[in-house]
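Section 5.1 Outputs to date
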Amino acid sequence: MTRVVLGSASTGRLTVLRNAGIDPVVVVSGVDEDAVAAALGARAAPDTVVGALAQAKAEAVSRDVAARHPATAADCVVIGADSMLFVNGELRGKPGTPENARRQWESMAGRSGDLHTGHCIVRMRDGAPVLTRTETSVTTVRFGTPTADELDAYIASGEPLGVAGAFTIDGLGGWFLDGVDGDPSAVVGLGLAVMRRLFESAGMAIGELWAANRRSP
């Protein structure tokens, strides 16, 4: 009975999995994302960056699970993920501050950007990793133009500060999106189409994962 471990504190990713029939064990990675990205260099392609971050998170969590959760590590699959928005020739992660969020929105309102999402799985058996797979995806997001008052209210809500690109599709930010071209679940943080391919590449069927990771009533 293979348990799914989500190596992320993202409520969006957790919701995607739960809505898709999988209630994972959550173990936050604690990876220094800035250090990983800096090691790749400023010229690294967006897909390279998000793929490396996703793999770093999955590998860090797999080590943590092996050390601290031996029963789970006996048969599990660890998921690592990362998303960044590429717009106006710039790769953007979480703004962190209201000032950065405002600058991001003022530069992307009324335009389109590509959300790059890295997905990585580490398959574990008997406490050790036996397989690692990484895949990235790109989803084009078309942004609306919020009024000044709307942008003030959105930034004051705090939501855009801690999410890639300073927006969400499944929260307050959804009011300011004109459309999405690609997998909407990837915009939330975890593309189900990509995850299904990764699971299949590791010999795991979705039906079996549903059975082993049902949410308790």
